[in-house]
Automatic annotation (TrEMBL):
Its main location: membrane. GO terms for molecular function: transmembrane transporter activity. Gene3D superfamilies: MFS general substrate transporter like domains. Keywords: Cell membrane, Membrane, Transmembrane, Transmembrane helix. One of its GO terms (cellular component) is plasma membrane. Residues 7-380 form the Major facilitator superfamily (MFS) profile domain. This is MFS transporter. The lineage of its organism: Bacteria, Pseudomonadati, Pseudomonadota, Alphaproteobacteria, Hyphomicrobiales.
């Protein structure tokens, strides 16, 4: 298979399996609470555990891919994800649930790093912004499908069936990976001695990773604790999941459209800042309003716009020879934020006695992004001035 758009479709589906598996816990959180006699704090910890391996694996993930190759690394990561789902599907012990979640997350981290690299291989220098916007949209697509499908499966067959469904979808990803081929122009890259990031570039990448992590923490609160919030109001699990999935389905449209608007206007950070402020306000409003569906629709239409501009920050300060290490730093910050965010949110929700506290934390996390965007621009400005002097 040598058509790059067909390759992108494969990468899109395979990455979708990560999001589907990630959401498998939050989609049936009320069921897990009853099955294992745990609270929202424990659910928040279990959700966040999925990203814990990223703190360790994000940096060496690229090196692992170079050693084993694209396809073997991808298949190994998918097998690790399946193993984690099977453990969670077959155990009634909470500690083993956590172990299975960690294993799944380890596979998801390796897969994220590898798929991003594979997509860049095919689209470098040609429509890469469009391709990456479509690629990123696989995450909300996977979460939205999970919110629609998994609550019904869990209600009918129990929590174990939910994790079996995640394993089955991941297995389809393995089949599709077998059709992947590297681009014709790809050549074996002899790793030269890695070039170190200069201090300002490193600082800029750290800030960019923090922005991406905080924004995703805020966004994750919607689909991680939104169903629990609606369940508190008397919604059924299936109805709550379907309502929250509106955000994800609409963001599938708003992510690529946001990238397009940013490119057309030439003001990506202005768009990202305005959209972030709007989403933060809507997140804080959601637990305090009865117009749930209208707010969810607005969040879906707006929340995807900052994704492209934020993802473009780190590459601005990374040369080709520093891109691997730089993106490793970027993803390490992202995974650290995504590990801590749901766990902290779960504890806050437990203390407050309502999932609304998690939504408030999400609003604060997104509200922190605009000042960090300003800081990033200042760092880049100083770096550019020093380069010219």
């Amino acid at each position: 298979m040598r058509n790059r758009w067909a390759i992108l479709a494969i990468l899109f589906f395979v990455r979708l399996t990560i999001a589907f598996q990630f959401q498998s816990v939050a989609a049936v959180a009320p069921l897990l609470e009853k099955t294992f006699n745990v609270g929202l704090a424990d659910i928040g910890l279990l959700i966040g555990l999925y990203f814990t391996p990223g703190i360790v694996l994000a940096l060496p993930g690229g090196a692992i891919g170079r050693t084993l190759g694209d396809k073997p690394t991808t298949i190994a990561a998918l097998l690790l994800m399946i193993a984690g789902s099977l453990v969670m599907a077959t155990t009634g012990i909470w500690g083993l649930q956590m172990a299975g979640r960690l294993a799944s997350g380890g596979g998801g981290v390796l897969l994220t790093v590898q798929l991003t690299k594979m997509g860049a291989d095919w689209f470098a220098g040609k429509e890469i912004a469009t391709a990456m916007a479509i690629f990123v949209s696989s995450w909300p697509t996977g979460v939205a499908i999970a919110l629609l499908v998994l609550p019904a499966i869990g209600t009918a067959h129990g929590a174990g069936a939910v994790f079996l469904a995640a394993a089955a979808l991941t297995a389809i990803g393995i089949v599709l990976t077998l059709f992947y081929q590297p681009p014709p122009a790809a050549s074996a890259v002899k790793a030269a001695a890695p070039t170190r990031l200069d201090p300002l570039a490193l600082l800029a990448v750290i800030v960019a990773g923090a922005i991406w992590g905080l924004f995703n923490v805020g966004f994750a609160m919607i689909f991680s604790f939104g169903p629990s919030l609606l369940a508190e109001r008397g919604w059924s699990i299936a109805a709550a999941g379907s309502a929250v999935s509106l955000v994800l389905w609409l963001s599938v449209i708003s992510v690529p459209s946001g990238g397009f608007i940013a490119d057309r206007t030439g003001r990506p950070l202005t768009l990202a800042i305005a959209a972030s402020l709007a989403v933060a306000i809507l997140l804080a409003w959601l637990p305090r309003s009865d117009t749930v569906l209208a707010i969810l629709v607005l969040i879906g239409l707006i929340s995807g716009h900052p994704a492209g501009p934020i993802m473009s920050l780190a590459p601005r300060v990374l040369a080709p020879e520093t891109r691997a290490i730089g993106m490793g730093v970027f993803y390490t910050l992202f995974y650290a934020a995504m590990m801590l965010g749901p766990a902290i949110a779960g504890r806050l929700a437990k203390s407050a006695g309502t999932a609304a506290a998690a939504l408030d934390l999400g609003a604060l996390a997104i509200l922190a992004c605009p000042p960090l965007m300003w800081l990033f621009e200042r760092i880049v400005s100083v770096r550019d001035r020093r380069a010219k002097s």
